[in-house]
Design goal:
- The chain is α/β, with parallel strands linked by helices and 393 residues long.
- It folds into three domains: 229 residues, P-loop containing nucleotide triphosphate hydrolases (Rossmann fold), CATH 3.40.50.300; 63 residues; 76 residues, Roll (Ubiquitin-like (UB roll)).
- The protein has 13 helices and 14 strands.
- Helix 1 runs parallel beside helix 9 and helix 5 crosses helix 6.
- The longest helix has 17 residues.
């Protein structure tokens, strides 16, 4: 399962975002380090379900009238303060928790109502643009420290016959989520000495920065956009980073209203419908959320996760079935499963995603839309429905 980590300084709204996206019971408070131990939960990215092409919707619990929600892991960790890579605050714990994340949402307080340490200040007195590179810098320097501390091992290995720097660095960085391909790609883009003993601190830092960028891409979430000065959100958008304006509090309020039967709303919608009784205060609060949704196309919570997975990680959704005519599994369930795969994946890759035995026994695949066999090298596309034929059952 793809893992999305929520990062940022304390009190930027990470726990509110996490609670809204997972509806898990976590502490949400207006003071730094509300989160001490990492919260792990399941949320979803949203896409169009292929059942929209059928006469009836699929009836899957993860499908809301053609809006398909595909599970992802969401991780909320302690807030990061300046100097975290040196152990300040809960820095080491925070950074350790990020090693297995595939992508990071940097939750920024776009209102400027909290300073660099997460302490409340008057709205607009702190510049949220200062947070844009903050997470990157802390992670880059933390990884550079790991590379530096382990460099002596690489130097010793370099004295052995058959030494390969790609292999040595891949072994060192595997724990950070880097693959051999990531390390090889970084080394291709860097200028460095052949002998590891000639590497300088600058060489090691450049390696750390490049590997981090490849393995931990970042989306900026301009949170509290509903109370932020408009120029703050505009300036964040001008930084050249992927930026999603958001109101995590607004999303949480909507999801709680849905649970109470007062509102009809699916995560990622750009509007909602009031279907129950509301007090004047509740109605006024929801209307403020509606205004923000109209401006930004939603609350931003679902949009941020979709941006991270479908755009930054460039994933597609594929649907394996057993019956290519009815798009069902062996029990007659329509479109029972959805898998997030890297763009460029083949039917065999999908088979392995379903189960290693299915992949090992892979024979061929059938495009369920055309009922035609597709080649092993065929690159799957978003929304493909595929029958996998395998010797494994």
């Amino acid at each position: 399962m793809i893992s999305i980590a929520l990062a940022g300084k304390p009190n930027a709204g990470k726990s509110t975002f996490y609670k809204a996206a997972t509806m898990a019971d976590v502490d949400v408070a207006n003071y730094p380090f509300t989160t001490i131990d990492a919260n792990r939960g399941v949320s979803s990215v949203r896409t169009k379900c292929p059942c929209l092409e059928l006469d009836e919707r699929c009836g899957n619990d993860a499908c809301h009238d053609g809006k398909r929600y595909v599970p992802v892991e969401l991780l909320d960790v302690a807030g990061l303060v300046p100097g975290a890579h040196e152990g300040r605050g809960l820095g080491n714990q925070f950074l350790d928790e990020l090693t297995n994340a595939d992508v990071i949402l940097n939750v920024v307080d776009a209102s400027g109502a909290t300073d660099a340490e997460g302490e409340p200040v008057e709205v607009g007195t702190y510049d949220p643009v200062d947070e844009v590179d903050f997470i990157e810098e802390q992670m880059d320097m933390w990884l550079a420290g790991i590379v530096d501390r382990n460099w002596e091992t690489v130097e010793r290995q370099s004295r052995s016959p058959g030494f390969d720097i790609d292999d040595a660095l891949a072994e060192m960085l595997t724990g950070f989520g880097a693959t051999e391909a990531d390390v090889a790609a970084s080394l291709r883009d860097l200028d460095y000495p052949d002998n590891p003993r000639d590497w300088t601190d600058e060489h090691r830092e450049a390696l750390a920065r490049d590997v981090r960028a490849r393995t931990k891409p970042i989306v900026l979430v301009a949170n509290k956009a509903d109370v932020a000065p408009e120029e703050n959100v505009e300036r964040l958008a001008e930084t050249g980073k992927p930026v999603i304006p958001a109101t995590a509090e607004g999303e949480l309020a909507l999801r709680q209203a849905v649970e109470a039967g007062a509102v009809e709303y699916d995560p990622g919608d750009d509007d909602f419908e009031v279907v129950g009784d509301l007090s004047a205060q509740q109605e006024q609060g929801l209307e403020r959320i509606r205004d923000v949704m109209a401006e930004w196309g939603g609350t931003g919570v679902q949009q941020a996760m979709n941006e991270a997975v479908y755009d930054l990680l460039d994933r597609i959704t594929a649907y394996p079935v057993q019956n290519e005519s009815k798009w069902t599994d062996g029990q007659g369930n329509v479109l029972p499963d959805a898998f997030l795969l890297p763009r460029g994946s083949t039917p065999r890759d999908l088979a392995y995603a379903v189960h290693s035995d299915i992949g090992d026994g892979y024979l061929h695949a059938v495009d369920a839309r055309t009922n035609r066999e597709i080649s092993d090298s065929h690159e799957l596309e978003e929304g493909d429905v595929v029958k996998i034929v395998s010797t494994a059952k």
